[in-house]
Design brief:
about 150 residues; single chain; about 30% strand; 6 strands; globular; 6 helices; alpha+beta; Yope Regulator, Chain: A; 6-stranded antiparallel beta sheet
Length: about 150
């Protein structure tokens, strides 16, 4: 059953239900990432429903002090991340890009413009390498010491 059908607008899922829906290896990735965000940045996930054509249904917005750390979209066996990285952060991204997985590094290099604010990326996380990439990307947006 598709995500938006399993959890319609009037049926907000719990965090456990989200983890169960993701399932498999990605479930552990999901929990590891949420634990990292809460421990490092003290970020509390905020559930929101969207009718967006590309990813309709409940999503999880991550913010700290007005700074967006991305939006997470649950999927069966994985989850996707939408992230905008401001152009003003480009100098701080330069040393990070070589440490990303080849796929994520190329995605960053080819990322499109988001409303003239920065590069936007949507990528899927299925394993711990994806979690590591996301953690590095958000560390540029919000260094842990600033959290």
């Amino acid at each position: 059953m598709q995500w938006k059908e399993k959890f319609p607008p009037d049926r907000q899922p719990s965090m456990d239900e989200i983890a169960d829906y993701i399932g498999g290896e990605a479930r552990q990735c999901w929990q590891t990432l949420l634990d990292h965000l809460q421990t490092t940045y003290r970020v509390q996930p905020k559930l929101s429903y969207s009718d967006c054509a590309s990813k309709p249904g409940w999503n999880i917005k991550l913010q700290k002090g007005g700074q967006s750390l991305g939006t997470l979209y649950p999927e069966e066996g994985s989850f996707s991340v939408f992230l905008v990285i401001s152009y003003r952060l480009a100098p701080r991204m330069e040393p990070i890009v070589p440490r990303l997985s080849d796929k994520t590094a190329e995605l960053y290099r080819q990322a499109g413009d988001y409303m003239h604010l920065g590069k936007w990326m949507m990528f899927q996380i299925k394993d711990m390498a994806g979690v590591g990439d996301y953690e590095q990307l958000i560390s540029v947006k919000l260094p842990a010491k600033a959290a």
